[in-house]
Amino acid sequence: MTDTHALMARRDVIGLRIGVLVSGNGTNLQAILDACARGDIAGGVVLVVSSSAKAFALERARRAGVPTVVLTPKEFSDRASYDARLIELLRTAQVELVCLAGFLRILTPQFVEQFAGRIMNIHPALLPAFGGPGMYGAHVHEAVLASGVKVSGCTVHFADETPDGGPIILQSPVRVEDDDTVESLAARVGVEEHRLYPAAIRLFAEERLQVIGRRVYVVDPAGPRAPAPAGRALLREGDNFESAGLTQAKKV
After folding, report:
1. Is 139 left (phi over 0), alpha (psi -120 to 50) or beta?
2. pLDDT of residue 239
């Protein structure tokens, strides 16, 4: 486990201090790390916490010079004690935004209260469809294909204590093809995930997200129809910036 000194050592990060919680391969973590390295996000990842010691996401973090901590659930007597330690680690690293990236644990109300309005999650479907308990990874794409829907996609949302709950920030649709498999659909949705998650984090870092009730509005000081500033390539025409309403489906 990384010690407290190591958690505080990332003084090189200027801007938003991001903590990422993972359990698996970490492709969305990699997208966030890459966006920060390119300067697309005004900030950086200062801590990665995994619920599994076998998660490849840990190696991705180490290669980027980011401190890592493994917190396995079996080391704790209950969810509350697990989340208490998680809160302690994130506070020590002075994390300002918590990003869930394939983190296979349901957050406790205690944790959500500590970081209210500062927890993001990415989901491989267009919420509120195909979300909730048990709906993660390949299970989501299996359910999408079994349902016969013509459009899937991904959603970035503020997280709360309910699985896949919380106000929706951005969504991107992906057409479901007649010959799709779980793997082919997941691959195309993944492309959108890796673009959309950094885009949402960038908006947060720029203090451009305003939450009113269940809706998230993107505030543009230059006006809603102003041209996008240079370097805003993470966002593109057709992205959904407000809520769960769909735009025209595109083949990715």
Report:
1. alpha
2. 53
Cβ-based neighbour number of residue 191 at 10 Å: 14
Say which of 123, 141, 157, 194 is annotated catalytic: 123
Residue 14 structure tokens = 């200027």
Active site residue 123: yes
Instruction: Please tell me whether residue 105 adopts helix, strand or coil conformation.
Output: coil
Strand 119-123: give its sheet, edge to edge: 68-70, 43-50, 16-22, 97-101, 119-123, 151-158, 168-175, 215-218, 209-212
CATH of 122-252, one of 3.40.50.150, 3.40.50.170, 3.40.630.40, 3.50.50.60: 3.40.50.170
Which CATH code of 3.40.50.880, 2.60.40.10, 3.40.50.170, 3.20.20.10 fits the domain covering 1-116? 3.40.50.170
151 neighbors 246 (Cβ within 8 angstroms): yes
At 184 the three-state DSSP class reads helix
**Opening angle at CA 131, ends 139 and 108, nearest 5:** 110
Q: What is the pLDDT of residue 161?
A: 87
Q: Indicate whether 226 pLDDT > 80.
A: no
Place of tokens 């309403």: 245
Q: How confident is the model at residue 248 (pLDDT cuts 50, 70, 90)?
A: very low
- Cα 35–Cα 36–Cα 39 angle in degrees, nearest 5: 90
**Are 196 and 174 within 8 A, CB to CB?**
no
* pLDDT tens digit sequence for 179-211: 999 999 999 999 999 999 999 999 999 999 999
